[in-house]
TrEMBL record:
Coiled coil: none annotated. Pfam families: Phage_holin_4_2. This is Phage holin family protein. It comes from the Bacteria. The chain crosses the membrane at residues 20-42, 49-77, 89-110. It comes from Uliginosibacterium aquaticum.
Length: 123
């Protein structure tokens, strides 16, 4: 039940992102729900692989390359979900940062500790 609540609140968070980043558009709550689950799946399945593959450049940039990975996954989610559009890489970068902050606030509001989160968004 908590997972469904977190998913719904993350979709609400995704609906708020276009209010702060003008070149991101979410057409409906359904699109936001689908995008939230796709982002969660990408973060659970693809992100760890990308982090391992880019470990040398991540180390050279003192971890900042993970922001690029997050932006690319956010952008990829927009390509996979109709009704969720990201205008470009920099829009994806800012959108991923805003979405990450909002989902962190959702976790905080639900009283979850970072170790209690399952495969939810880590953008």
């Amino acid at each position: 039940m908590m997972t469904l609540l977190r998913w719904a609140l993350n979709a609400v968070a995704l609906m708020l992102v276009p209010e702060l980043v003008s070149s991101i558009h979410v057409s409906s709550y359904t699109a936001a729900l689908i995008a939230a689950i796709i982002i969660g799946l990408l973060n659970a399945l693809v992100r760890p692989i990308l982090i391992v593959l880019t470990l040398p450049i991540t180390a050279l940039t003192l971890g900042f390359f993970i922001l690029v990975i997050n932006a690319l996954l956010f952008w990829l989610a927009s390509e996979l979900v109709g009704g969720f559009q990201v205008g470009g890489f920099w829009s994806a970068m800012w959108g991923a940062l805003v979405y990450s902050l909002l989902t962190w606030l959702v976790s905080l509001a639900l009283g979850e500790k970072p170790s209690q989160r399952s495969s939810g968004p880590r953008l």
